[in-house]
Amino acid sequence: MIPFNGFSREPSALADAEVAAARRVIDSHWYVLGPEVDAFEQEWAAACNAPASVGVANGLDAIEICLRSLGIGAGDEVITTPMTAFATILGIIRAGATPVLADIDEHTALLSPESVRRCVTPRTRAVLLVHLYGQVRQMTVWTNLCSELGIQLIEDCAQAHLARSSEGAAGLIGAASAWSFYPTKNLGAVGDAGAVVSHDSAVIEKARLLRNYGQSTRYEHVEIGLNSRLDELQAAILRARLPLLVEFTERRRAIAEQYRRGIAHPLVSLLAEAEVPEAHVHHLFVVTSPTRDALAAHLRSCGVETLIHYPIPAHLQPALVDARRDPHGLTGAENHARTCLSLPCHPGVSDAEVAEVIAAVNSFDAS
Ligand SMILES: Cc1ncc(COP(=O)(O)O)c(C=O)c1O
């Protein structure tokens, strides 16, 4: 079976570096918010071309902290996409704000600016833009739209590590960005981890307070914060993995390029090509098919593991039935959820396996 995730195929030198990193932390006897976190925050900021980053416990918390650091909360509305991990919407709710769901563009599966316009009310404070699957697109459109509306642009970069459009690096185009280092992300820890990135020093300072009980100095609390501290072990592991991120990202791009060139089937469509190669880091390689479930079954029979991102758009989740949304409906997201299929795209997939996946897709017989 060609697996969807490739941890077991990673270089043994990487595993050795991770074990050494863990040993270093255990020997230091310092386990939460210490020198490894400080160093990782600097290294991650440098990788993003950002002045600073703040390590937090996970990507969900990073979203809540981004919003709260920008003063967004109760009574405010934040527009986002229903085609995302549920955490995107949870982060808005956890900040005390109201999520409003706009539809997606069927060619990219990204938020549609036209739909966002229909969702704007006097209470709208921000657009939370998800760089879904690792693609950063139309950033001038988004920065112009948000400045015209007088609202903040916030980036959910959980799937977009190192993506860079011609308008700038993911995570630095808006006022603040939220990152996840969940193990399967392009940069992943061996547990939960996340970060907030911003060019605004006030956001960084507030995020630092919020992640640690709102504490300014020991036992002095100036905000109602949360416990969202990044631990030393995860930070040390991330530091061991970060040097390979550029190489792993290049490999993802090469795999995606081979898929784009090789897949040719009347019932299988590709999403729009990246605006520039650097603007897509291929966290996921997603195709669409009106006969998606039969295609997935066929690929499984050919030894190819696939997943669906995401089978149920947020507004159809039982927990969100009452969520506010585009008055024209969210049919783009509903269609995508019915038709999307993610193919293996991790750096450990070999060229021969990419060819096998392409042959399997192209041999699909829907009859
Ligand atoms: C787009 C998106 N946003 C937010 C998150 C939440 O990150 P975490 O799982 O670290 O809380 C994820 C990860 O699942 C994600 O893919």
Number of domains: 2
Strand content: 15-25%
Instruction: State the shape.
Output: globular
Order of helices and strands: HHEHEHEHEHEEEEEHEEHHEEHEHEH
CATH architecture of the largest domain: 3-Layer(aba) Sandwich
| Poorly predicted spans | none
The CATH superfamily name of the largest domain is Type I PLP-dependent aspartate aminotransferase-like (Major domain)
> What class, by secondary structure content?
alpha/beta
Number of strands: 15
What is the rounded Rg? 20 Å
* Overall average pLDDT: 98
So how many helices? 12
Q: Order of strands across the biggest sheet?
A: 1-9-8-5-4-2-3-14
**Helix amount:** 25-40%
The CATH class label of the largest domain is Alpha Beta
Biggest beta sheet summary: 8 strands, mixed
Structure description:
This protein has helices at residues 12-28, 35-48, 59-69, 86-94, 113-119, 139-149, 201-210, 232-241, 245-262, 292-301, 331-339, 351-362, and strands at 52-56, 77-80, 98-101, 124-130, 152-156, 164-165, 168-169, 176-180, 194-198, 215-217, 220-221, 269-270, 285-288, 324-325, 340-343. The chain contains twelve helices and 15 strands. The model has no long low-confidence stretch (mean pLDDT 98). It is an alpha/beta fold. It folds into two domains: 7-243, Type I PLP-dependent aspartate aminotransferase-like (Major domain) (Aspartate Aminotransferase, domain 2), CATH 3.40.640.10; 244-362, Aspartate Aminotransferase, domain 1 (Alpha-Beta Complex). Bound molecules: pyridoxal-5'-phosphate (PLP). Pyridoxal-5'-phosphate (PLP) binds next to helix 3 and helix 4.
